[in-house]
Amino acid sequence: MTVDREQAVPGSRSTRRAASQSRAVRVRPRGRARRVAKVGGIVLAVLVLISAGAGLWLYNKLSGNINTVSLGGNANLGTEKADAFGRTPIDILVLGTDARNTAEDCRLGGDCGSGGYGNADVEMVVHISADRSNATVMSIPRDTMVHVPACADPKNPKNATQGYYGMINSALGYGPLCQMQTIHQLSGVPLSHFMMISFSGVVSMSDAVGGVQVCVDNNVYDTYSHLKLAKGTHTLKGVGALEFVRSRHGFGDGSDLGRTYAQHIYLSSLMRKMKSAGTLADPGALYSLADSATKALTVDSSLGSVGSLLGLAADVAKVPTNRITFTTMQTMADPNNSARVVPAPGAQAMFAAIANDQSLSGGSSAKPSAAPSTAPAEPTVSPADVSVRVENGSGVTGRAGDVAAALTGKGFGGGTTASNAPVQTATTMLRYPAGDKAKAQTVASALGIPAAHVSEDAAVSRVTLVIGADWTSGTSYPGGSAKPAPVSTHEALSDSHAETADQTDTCAPVSTFHTVELNGVPMTPSQAYARATNVPNSAP
Hints:
The chain is of the alpha/beta class.
């Protein structure tokens, strides 16, 4: 067994600043062309695809538009658990990349030279429930600091990392699989697929639907994204739409958090437009939308055909807009860098709710059945108050480090360490000294370790997890609890700025801080609007 050196794994806590970026929404024909996919995030950009009579030519043409990336074999992304009726949730990571790999993306992005996959400046986990009655779209701020695990790009194995602590959006540089593994390690949410869209994709999708209606609560000029709008409601097309979803300095407190809120408003409006627009009954316009959507996307190979995307669209079409919840992972300031954030304690409840397939938009699905008796006890101690000694007895190099990093990513204490166990062991065990049972239960709940694998041990001085040969990959114990312990919906959504996709009266809150500069002078976006009289508005 290769030795895992004892190492301190930096702790994580949490703030408020967030990130995201372009996305799009997918639709699905109803009957011959009117059934619309109703889920937010770029995943909803998936499509209204084949209108009746289009035939094999159209199928092949649209399939040929789609760019695909293989996730390889052992993806280490977790497995969605079926419900009592054998139905399985769908979890998709939707990414907006800042790569400038085409002349059009260079023009729209304002600079060139960032080839490859770029950074994931939009990261949204789209969860579609097992019974297809509800969906959750959770944005993850791009400035979140996390432990990126050891990972490699299946397409180019030399593009690999041994793992590091850094901004979550940087993991995409090693390929979409690495970004998926990073978010799975952070949240514990299994991920089945990914979808990625570029700057030009946002432009083409907004044009294809004839523009997207948005509202701002004050005059705004973001001198960085170039968004300029007067107070009120506007229909954005093309570059104006891209300026809106990219605007970081125009909204909220001028951070990525304000940008995610604005993006949720944009995506909800895009979904409603796709559902109600006469465009969807027009074969010519319908083809334009489907052509734009398929050209805009890069997806994992299992979604790389029109047929696969139609299957997904059929699933998400069942979800009504008032049961689609847009939310943002709770964050707090990184104690080591005020310009960065880490997950807040409340994020653990949101992660658990999504992993447990709980509805966050009310209704019967928000009332989960009791956890099975083999599940770990519901925790009563905050992860921040628990530091864990993780020992690798599995015989697989790096297991202690991976699991310890997952724990700190979930908010466990900075005293969490990783090392080798004295000997290899067949069975994973979580041991705790007298008086620390509640702390052990917090660890067990976070990792899905069954109660039968948790015991008091006078030989340990603190909570100690020994990883056995029964757990050789992943950061959730295989065969553990069927689902995480049910959590309070109120707790999961606390401080997350949650909205449902049917809300039509929400305006993006323009920043009241000096977040922009004009001629070198710091000012508010509204002040910049008043002074930039020579700059045209982003909407007619």
